[in-house]
Specification:
The complex is a heterodimer of chains A (about 270) and B (about 300). Chain A has two domains: about 190 residues, Alpha-Beta Plaits (2-Layer Sandwich); about 45 residues. Helices cover about 35% and strands about 15% of the residues of chain A. Chain A has seven helices and ten strands. In chain A, strand 6 and strand 7 form a beta hairpin. The radius of gyration of chain A is 31 Å and the shape is elongated. Chain B has one domain: Formate dehydrogenase/DMSO reductase fold (Up-down Bundle). Helix content of chain B is about 75%, strand content about 0%. Chain B is built from ten helices and no strands. The longest helix of chain B has 29 residues. Classes of the chains: A alpha+beta (about 270), B mainly alpha (about 300). At the A-B interface, helix 2, helix 3 and helix 7 of A face helix 4, helix 5 and helix 6 of B.
């Protein structure tokens, strides 16, 4: 059965235990980070994903005065039900497993980086030294042993919890019926990491996506490209017909003018 | 240096450009052979002869850009054909087939199998593949869901028209400078062809301007459009528009007017003005791809 994680950011306190657990389990070395200069995101550290950072907590300050509140948004690979990265990958180095994780096979990868552009959440990172892709693995090795992902196991508040995907959807829907906002149930055809929040997740920086999965997205784009092609071909044909007519007309006018000129031309001397 | 931290940088832009250029040159050359006068054949041969080296060099650049020669052995690179639903797999297949067909066409030319029906059939197949190769970079980008700046159905058509314009420029340039040296065995009489080529180029430039405008309108809501039109990439984008479209159009248009008014061989066909016009079209093609490619990633 396919596993999924519910990320209830209403319960997150920003302790970053998940960040640390991920680093330790996946043996990701530390890296020099810089202060996040984006207003409202100053406490976010590290500021972004990297080959050495599979997950981080985005600290988002909203409101002012007594209304000021922090929102802690965990960012990682969302392990889409039908992953955009896998659908564009020419070598099938990326694939969705039945258990839930989107897996990366370094042996197949040629380093083309198309997955980076194909991911709707801008997650995969390219390791310039090793020339390979790095991203959250959903701790597939731990799942295989019946364990929870390191970040989920480390979360002290229950903001992260792992279940079967249909259970996660039920929990998310139940939260929505109580006024919460959810993200990942339908976006890009659904993800295995589903968010629950008290404000819309897109307002916290998650990208706005419709429910089209990659196949539907590509089909839709292809139809539009094809339609434009038909319109363009029609316009070209019309222009061709118009241009031919015009040149024929010009020739006719030219010939008529020529014959008129001859008939009205004054006779030469001696012909009078 | 000019990649602004984008994953696909200058070398990928160059590859996209060369693929389009090779395909465009082939489409132009083979169309001249199929639908033009017999005396225009020198241009047709130039189109075929220029196409496969461009595509081949582009592919070479792409492999170099992968940057892992120890891992990417030829057999490992064959993995690129694994996923038939990936535009990169489809593009690689098209490029490989196109390379074979364009090489074969050149062989037909070299051995002077001019009147062969088989060559016409090969050329029709090559033109079809050429359209695929010219459209593929735009489709490759348009299918990348993580890049909203590329998510426009106008992009493949923009790249196609650009490929044909640059193909016309390359064939024109080859004829202007190398025609008699490289292809002495073809009869002369290509002036009419050059006039037609110039007219088609002017039409192509207008079409490219129109599609470019529609493309920009279609992605107007994205924040990347500001970077491309007014930000760090603006010099490249506007150089592509002014230098690669407007100035060559003006040069070609001037030549056409002189031809109409005086009936003389216009200044446009003097080597220098033609060369400037064609080179600007080529530079515009690469600058536009660069601005769009990088613009979608930063």
């Amino acid at each position: 059965m396919s596993k999924a994680v519910l990320v209830d950011i209403r319960k997150c306190i920003g302790c970053r235990a998940c960040q640390v657990a991920c680093k330790r389990w996946n043996d990701r070395k530390s890296e020099k980070t810089v202060l996040n200069a984006t207003p409202g995101l100053e406490w976010t550290n590290p500021s972004d994903l990297s080959p050495r950072t599979y997950t981080y907590i985005r600290f988002i300050g909203r409101g002012s005065g007594d209304d000021f509140r922090w929102h802690f948004l965990k960012i990682q690979c969302n392990h889409c039900v039908e992953p955009g990265c896998a659908s564009v990958c020419p070598t099938k180095a990326l694939s969705k497993s039945v258990e839930g994780p989107v897996l990366y096979d370094v042996e197949k990868c040629i380093g083309c980086k198309y997955c980076i552009s194909g991911c709707p959440f801008n997650v995969p990172r390219f390791d310039e030294e090793k020339h390979i892709i790095e991203k959250c693995t959903f701790c597939a090795d731990r799942l295989a042993e019946g364990l929870k992902p390191a970040c989920v196991a480390a979360c002290p508040t229950g903001a992260l919890s792992m279940h079967e995907r249909n259970e996660v959807i039920q929990l998310a829907e139940s939260a929505r019926s109580n006024g919460a906002h959810i993200y990942g149930k339908d976006e890009v055809g659904g993800t295995s990491w589903v968010y629950v929040s008290d404000i819309p997740l897109t307002e916290l920086g998650l990208p706005q996506h419709d429910s089209k999965n990659p196949t539907a997205y590509v089909t839709d784009m292809l139809l539009k490209v094809g339609l434009l092609g038909v319109v363009g071909a029609g316009a070209l044909y019309g222009l061709g017909v118009y241009s031919k007519r015009r040149s024929r007309l010009e020739k006719t006018v030219h010939n008529n003018c020529g014959s008129t000129d001859k008939s009205t031309a004054s006779p030469r001397k001696g012909e009078e | 240096m000019f990649s602004f931290g984008a994953n696909w940088g200058v070398l990928v832009a160059l590859e996209l450009f060369l693929a389009g250029l090779g395909a465009g040159a082939y489409i132009v050359g083979s169309s001249i052979d199929l639908f033009g006068e017999k005396s225009w054949r020198r241009l047709a041969f130039a189109g075929a002869l220029m196409s496969w080296p461009m595509v081949g060099v582009g592919l070479g650049i792409l492999i170099i850009d992968l940057g892992r020669p120890e891992l990417n052995t030829p057999s490992h690179l064959m993995n690129v054909f694994n996923n038939l639903s990936s535009m990169m797999t489809i593009g690689s297949t098209l490029l490989t087939m196109f390379l074979a067909i364009s090489l074969l066409t050149t062989v037909f030319w070299v051995f002077k199998w001019h009147e062969s029906l088989l060559r016409s059939i090969i050329e029709i197949a090559g033109i079809s593949l050429g359209f695929g190769v010219a459209l593929y970079p735009g489709l490759l980008l348009a299918f990348a869901r993580g890049r909203v700046f590329w998510a426009s159905p106008f992009l493949p058509w923009l790249f196609l028209v650009s490929a044909i314009c640059t193909g016309l420029a390359l064939v024109g340039l080859a004829e202007t400078w190398l025609g008699r040296i490289l292809f002495p065995f073809f009869s002369t009489g290509t002036e009419d062809a050059m006039i037609e080529l110039s007219r088609t180029l002017r039409f192509g430039i207008l079409a490219k301007l129109l599609i470019l405008t529609l493309y920009v309108i279609s992605v107007w809501q994205t924040k990347e459009v500001l970077t491309v039109l007014m930000g760090r990439l603006a010099p490249f984008f506007w150089a592509a528009v002014a230098g690669g479209l407007l100035i060559p159009f003006a040069i070609e248009e001037y030549g056409e007017r002189v031809l109409k008014e005086t009936g003389l061989r216009p200044i446009i066909y003097s080597r220098i003005s033609a060369t400037i016009s064609f080179i600007l079209v080529l530079l515009g093609g690469i600058l536009l791809r660069y601005a769009i490619l990088i613009g979608g990633q930063i």
